[in-house]
Each structure stands twice: as structure tokens, then as C-alpha cells.
Amino acid sequence: MNVTRERAAAVLAGNWLGASTVPSRGLYPHQWSWDSAFIAFGLRHLSPGRARRELRTLFAAQWADGRVPHIVFDPATPPEAYFPGPSFWHAGRTSGLVQPPVHARAVLAAHEAEPDREFLAALYPRLVAWHGYLRTCRDAGGRGLVAIVHPWESGMDNSPAWDEPLTRVPLATGFVRRDLEHGDAGDRPSDDDYGRYVRLAAAYRDSGYQDIGDFAVEDPGFNALLADAELALAEIAEELGLPSDAHREAAARLEKAMQETLWDDGFFFARDVHTGALIREHTCAGLLPLVLPDLAVAPALVATATGPRFRLGRVHGVPSYDLTAPGFDPGRYWRGPSWFNVGWLIRRGLLHHGEFALAAQLRDDLVETAAETGFAEYVDPLTGAGHGTRSFSWTAALTVDLLSEASCDRGRGLRRPELSKGR
């Protein structure tokens, strides 16, 4: 077995709780929603049964309204280990927020690794309910797009795209940040940002989780991943002998609404539902529509990705924020660093749109950087230096997946272009 694969497998084994995988033992000691989906992509190569167990455990915590909570709390973990913990949310063993819907694609991948029709049949109605919740309860703008009600729901918690809408949210006080016990303050959100996150989460909780509150943003990354998930759900339906047209139509409607509402000047921007204005920050979320295979504007979006704002192919991974922006910070949470899950998703998009050499280059860089940083949570796109926690589960899992699929790319006769030393 490849040494890097062995090391990645050891990370996943070390973070396994018996029914699910924590992102990391210290900083994130519970089960996170989209983390588990990414983890399943790697586990399917190591233990398809564990991949299925990971996803079943997550969906066992699904709410009656269809939402899949962004955290499922481990009862064996001390309450003081993470804030905000279960006592904050008043929702039993889960939080009340959600995260991007990458789960259908993960369920399909787990099935393809080791076909299990019973697994598909059990998860399909849960996925349908999950997507249904998003398409109905979260269509705050009435344009057919999902709105997130908290930055944490984007998965890109500290993105500069949320700064403007967060100005409407006052600061919370009197809480203890547990994250700073496990990470460098320079890598994490500021105290002011965190205070707004806590106040917004508390207001949503106190409303009885009634959508929509003071923060409502149509995020291009979230909506692109939902459209892709609908395409995956169509494939699952076909595997089960069920009608699939409704899922493909839902994906097409989302894609159309994104291009009509969020696309401008070669990029997909987030939109503040309350003001109706685009939030003109170039973040990696605006590149995620590349995962859609029929995206009409893909050539223009690839041009933006390879241009000066992101320099894809000339830096490590995919920067989370515009390299030319005054607020770019190569080490602070979602304000510049490259994340492995984003790079993995963008690689998929590049393959869809015929950018095979660039996809192979990105794959090789992701694998090498993961190994060199001890499977860091995120990295400086300019130097490749690791930031955040180490032995991070989705970094390890997606490394396993990329190593397993490397032969497919090489089978196309692709070679990796050398990156310049200066980046």
C-alpha cells in the first residue's frame, strides 16, 4: 500500500468512534454533516461497510422536517469539550443548523464501491426529504434558490462574503471559545466574528428554528452542491428502478436560477436576500458550480479560476478568497487558505469540463500537500504551510480517494505540469 495512503488510513482509524468519524479528536470532537460525506468518499476504498455506517449514523439524526443537522453530538464526549454544545441548541443530541448537501453523491459513491441495494433503499427517502426541506423551507427569496440562515451552514464559516450581512447582527458576550484551546488564534475567526455567529445561532434557536431570520443569503456553493446532489439522487432512483426525471429537473431549475440570479462578470456571487444585492466578494464558493457537468458558463468560470484572483495551477490548492483582495489572509479560516474538500470538488468540476491536465495537476498537489502537512485542516496557498488542526479526517479521506483514482487520470495519458517555484 502507498505510504501516504497508509498514513491517511491511520488518521481515519484514529478518528473513528465506532459508528462515525470525528473531523479531529481535539478541535472537532463530534460528527459533522458534510465532513461525514467527504469522509465516506475515502472510507469506501478502505471499508465500504464503514462508509455506509458513517452515513447511516448521520441520517439517523435527521429531523422530522427533513433537515440534516450540522452536528450530531457524541454522548461520550464531555459537554465542555466543544462550544456551542448540545445544551446550547435545545435540540437533543444535535444542532439546529445544516451544512451543504453533499450526501447524495456520497451515498451513491459508497454504493458503487460495494453495491448494496438495501442501503440505497434506506437512504433514498431520507435524501428526498432532506432536499425537499431545502427547496421549500429555505427558498427565502422566492427564486428557487436555497438561503442559508447562518454562516456555519455554508461550511465556509468565516468567509468574507458574510461580513456585510453580519453587520445587522449584534455581538453576543459571556461565552467561552473552546476552539482557541486547540488552534492558533491567528488561524481562527476573530472574537467579533464569533460573537456574531453565537448571537445569530441563539436567535435562530430561540425562534424555534423558524426560517428565515436576520441573516439570509443565497450561497452559490451551497446551491451548486444541491444541484449536483439532485443529479446523484437521479442516479440512485434509477438504481432502485424509480422515476428520476423530477431530480434532473430540480437540478436544472437550480442551475438556471443560479445563472439568472447570482452570475455576473464571470463569477457566481452570493446574494443577500434582505437587500437583494449581490455580495461582490470573490470566494471559492463562486467556483463550485463547476461541479455541474452542463454548466453553460463553465469556460468563463475556469478563466476566473486560473486568473489572478485564484491562480489555479500556480498555487497550492484552491484559495478560499481572492488573492488580490486587501483582506486576503493566507492563514485565517476561510479568508484565504486552501481547503482540501474545495480542491477535491473543483478537480471533479475540471474533469467535467475537459480540463484534464489542470485536474491532474491539482490532484497531485493536493496529495503531496496533504502528506507534507500531516493532513492539515487547510494550508497557505502561497507556501503550502499547514494551518488549523492536523490529522484532519476529510483531508485524509479525500487523499485516499485521490490516490485511488490517480490511475484513472494517468490512463488518459496525462502528465503533471511543473509548478513554478515562486508560485
UniProtKB/TrEMBL annotation:
SUPFAM superfamilies: Six-hairpin glycosidases
Stretches assigned to the Mannosylglycerate hydrolase MGH1-like glycoside hydrolase domain: 28-395
Molecular-function GO terms, alphabetical: Glc3Man9GlcNAc2 oligosaccharide glucosidase activity
Record keywords: Glycosidase, Hydrolase
InterPro entries the UniProt entry points to: 6-hairpin_glycosidase_sf (IPR008928), 6hp_glycosidase-like_sf (IPR012341), Glycoside_hydrolase_63 (IPR004888), MGH1-like_GH (IPR054491)
GO biological process: oligosaccharide metabolic process; protein N-linked glycosylation
Similarity section: Belongs to the glycosyl hydrolase 63 family.
Name assigned to this protein: Mannosylglycerate hydrolase MGH1-like glycoside hydrolase domain-containing protein
Species lineage: Bacteria, Bacillati, Actinomycetota, Actinomycetes, Pseudonocardiales
